[in-house]
Amino acid sequence: MTTHPRVAWAITYIDEHLDERLSLNELAAKAGLSVWRFSAVFRKHAGVSPHRFICLQRLQLVRTLLADGESLASAAQVAGFYDQSHLCRHFKSAWGMTPSQYVGRQRSAAAMTDGSREREAA
Q1: How many domains does the chain have?
Q2: Do residues 83 and 35 both lie within one domain?
Q3: Phi, psi (rounded to 5 degrees) for 38
Q4: Where in the sequence is the domain holding 91, given as residue range(s)?
Q5: What is the chain's Cα-based Rg?
Q6: In the chain, % of residues over pLDDT 70
Q7: Same domain, 71 and 38
Q8: 8 Å CB contact between 100 and 73
Q9: Which pTM does this prediction carry?
Q10: How many CA atoms lie within 13 A of 86 on its CB side?
Q11: Helices 50-67 and 99-121: angle between axes, nearest 10 degrees
Q12: pLDDT digits (tens, 9 = 90+) for 17-62
């Protein structure tokens, strides 16, 4: 994804601290760059702004947690969202459906797959 060492560091740091509040000022300072320079370098090498990257990483974690059976409240907390409402707004904006709709579709897909396997075994 990226070859810039400070961006690679930032991505690792973000992934390890998704449940914490991550500010652009903090990330830039830890990377040893000004906020403006950090944002520009990050966007160039990661393809999105630092804020967008953090949000997408959190949303991906939520999808994994929900698929593993976590509750929406627990997934929101673990992924670093302020609350369920905050999570739902970002989730719907990113994927065009609410987390509940996503879980429903996952269950439907799993049921269809299980049904296909049962028919094949018969």
Answers
A1: 2
A2: no
A3: -60, -45
A4: 55-122
A5: 18
A6: 90
A7: no
A8: no
A9: 0.82
A10: 11
A11: 40
A12: 999 999 999 999 999 999 999 999 999 999 999 999 999 999 999 9
